[in-house]
UniProtKB/TrEMBL annotation:
Protein name: FAM86 N-terminal domain-containing protein
Organism taxonomic ancestry: Eukaryota, Viridiplantae, Streptophyta, Embryophyta, Tracheophyta
Record-linked InterPro entries: Methyltransf_16, SAM-dependent_MTases_sf
Coiled coil residues, start to end: none
Source organism per UniProt: Gossypium darwinii (Darwin's cotton)
Gene3D superfamilies in UniProt: Vaccinia Virus protein VP39
Length: 307
């Protein structure tokens, strides 16, 4: 971690450069694994975790989602991907590494967006803010767009039509949840408008009981992540086949459930928007690619799909 010298005396604005090194185990034989068995991602971020709303810091859920992408590259390779609340851009960098056909990153905070673009350039990725068809097909180009959830229009969102939507730690503020759910519903819905689709209702389901779980049973203390071992790799990759072959858009959200009431609110809004949520935490566990990072508590993070 390298500190940048700054004439600004306010410590809250201080920037550091963190190099995140993903270390691939010997059993990892996929083509995305560098010869050095190490992928180093330099990121400029803030020492103040709340600067730029939540965008200018490296959060545990973004580390987890990045590990997931690198562990299952076949899910994201040659797919158009759209991230809501992209923060420092770590997830987008990993998507580009596994050769997603399109990578569009969005954030509602302009200072976070500027910092994200700088990070993409640090990682030798070209950035663009326009969405011309000629450039969006270039795998070396990552799109960065300013997208406040509360002002995003249905027409604007329907221009993207991604195959995969991603979000890391986006379920945190109850006041933002209606806007987040609206954005997800529009991006996931190919055929009908979001307004028309809200008239239906699909029961949210989690593994085990076929109904919405009580969110008080879904807090971090009840969940223990298990480290993956090589004997499980084949079976877990087989579990991912349906996700790779599915034709409809899907959202992957990694999140720490800090407040059960907030998560309960998210489930209720998703149900009203005819969205189905499934917990994949124990089904698709990523490799532990950050074994040296002792402060990173993987056991508190959940992985959900939204369809």
């Amino acid at each position: 971690m390298i500190s940048f010298k700054d004439d600004n005396p306010v410590r809250e604005n201080e920037r550091v450069c963190k190099c995140i090194s993903f270390l691939f185990p010997d059993c990892f034989k996929l083509s995305i694994c560098p010869k050095s068995r190490k992928l180093v991602v330099p990121l400029q971020c803030s020492l103040n975790m709340l600067e730029g709303d939540t965008g200018c810091s490296v959060w545990p859920s973004s580390l987890f989602l990045s590990e997931f992408i690198l562990s299952y590259p076949h899910i994201f390779s040659r797919k158009s991907c759209f991230e809501v609340g992209s923060g420092v851009g770590l997830v987008g960098i990993c998507l580009a590494h596994v050769k997603a056909s399109k990578v569009i990153l969005s954030d509602g905070d302009l200072s976070t967006l500027a910092n994200m673009k700088l990070n993409l350039e640090k990682n030798r990725l070209n950035t663009e803010t326009n969405l011309s068809e000629t450039s969006i097909e270039n795998q070396n180009v990552v799109k960065c767009i300013h997208l406040p959830w509360e002002s995003a229009s249905e027409k604007e969102l329907q221009n993207f039509m991604p195959e995969i939507i991603l979000g890391a730690d986006v379920i945190y503020d109850p006041s933002c949840l209606p806007h987040l759910v609206k954005v997800l519903a529009i991006l996931l819905n190919k055929k009908k408008s979001y307004i028309d689709n809200r008239e239906g209702s699909i029961l949210n389901s989690f593994p085990g009981d076929g109904k919405v779980n009580d969110t008080h049973d879904l807090d971090a203390s009840s969940f223990t992540a298990q480290r993956i071992n090589t004997s499980e790799v084949k079976g877990i990759i087989n579990d991912a086949v349906d996700l790779v072959s599915r034709a409809d858009p899907v959202t992957y959200i990694s999140s720490v459930i800090r407040n059960a009431d907030t998560f309960d609110r998210f489930l209720a809004l998703a149900d009203q928007a005819d969205l189905r949520i499934k917990d994949l935490t124990s089904t698709l566990r990523p490799f532990d690619l950050l074994p040296y990072m002792k402060s990173y508590d993987r056991s508190s993070i959940r992985l959900f799909t939204v369809t």
